[in-house]
Amino acid sequence: NAGVTQTPKFRVLKTGQSMTLLCAQDMNHEYMYWYRQDPGMGLRLIHYSVGEGTTAKGEVPDGYNVSRLKKQNFLLGLESAAPSQTSVYFCASRVFSSGNTIYFGEGSWLTVV
Amino acid sequence: AQTVTQSQPEMSVQEAETVTLSCTYDTSESDYYLFWYKQPPSRQMILVIRQEAYKQQNATENRFSVNFQKAAKSFSLKISDSQLGDAAMYFCASLISGTYKYIFGTGTRLKVLA
Question: Which residue in B48, B102, B108 has the most chain A C-beta atoms within 10 A of its own C-beta, making it the best mutation to test that interface?
Fold first, then answer.
């Protein structure tokens, strides 16, 4: 079982460059999430999706865009990367039923120089 | 507002001993779920244990158990017979039933001493 897969795992960007992080899940989950993890701040929600074709903003959406054209994929885009976006990014998914566990990908390390 | 607080940034435990990690939360809802996640150096987030608020019985998973005090809004994690592989960052999280948003604490780094 692949579960939740993120690509790429590591990336170094120059300020102003753009990139897309891809998240794929094979569990037929309705909900998908993008979080960022920074030291001392835990996990902060960037964007989420409750189903194919729908997206919504989380706590820290500025500087990011997302798309969910297919149920199994959730893309996170950085249009013009900034050093403040240096972080570890986690994708996660879950079934739409109360209390179900959220499953995480392995994380994507992004450094913006 | 829903909050989750982990007041211990770092804890240490001797191998084979027991350690308890603290978590408090705040919510006005009555139906919710609480979780403990482990994040080892590999960074993979792994579910350790889950508790439904409507259940009075504390959840257990092998060496891991929780002390769920609903009135006090406390959800501590007890690790028995600690092993070197338990060394990790541990995150407490909550989810209001029927909603999308998980709230995570800032984490507790657990060191296991040989």
Answer: B102
